[in-house]
Amino acid sequence: MAKPAEPKSTAPAENNVYSVWALPQDDVAPRLKKLMQGLRDEFSGPEFEPHITVVGAISLTPEDALNKFKSASRGLKAYDAKVDRVATGTFFYQCVFLLINPTPQVVETSAHCCAHFGFNSATQLMIVLLHGMGCGFVVQLICHI
C-alpha cells in the first residue's frame, strides 16, 4: 500500500535576522582576539569573533538568505583590508573599533554584497573590538592615554 503524500505547508517561511561578515586571515585573527580579550578584561563586554560586517542585520527567510549569499559570493575573492584608525562610539555594538581604509576594492566588494541583499549601508566598514555599555568611560580613558 502506498504511503500518502505528506501535505505541503502553506505557512510562509519565518524570517530570521542575518548579516554577512568578512573574516580576517588566519594569521591576523589571533592578534585581534588577544586585543579584544584585553579590552574585555578591562571593560567587560561579550565575546564575539573578529569580523568586518559587510552586510548589516537584515530580515530574510533562511532560503532567501542562502540564495542571496550564494549569488553575492560568486566571483568574490579574498581582499586586503587595512586599518585606517582606531575610533570609539556611543552605540553598544560600536564601542571601540578599527575603521577600515575605504580602498576601491573594499568599497566595491561591500557595494556588490549589499546590492545582492538589497541592503543600504552608509556606515564605513570596521572591525569592532569591544561591545559594551560603558562606552563613554572607555572613550575618556582612551583619550587620556
TrEMBL record:
Any coiled-coil ranges, and where? none
> Listed GO molecular functions?
2',3'-cyclic-nucleotide 3'-phosphodiesterase activity
Q: Which processes are annotated in GO (biological process)?
A: cyclic nucleotide metabolic process
Pfam families hit by this protein = CPDase (PF07823)
Q: Which InterPro entries match?
A: Cyclic-nucl_3Pdiesterase, Cyclic_Pdiesterase
- UniProt name for this protein: PREDICTED: cyclic phosphodiesterase
Organism for this UniProt entry: Prunus dulcis (Almond)
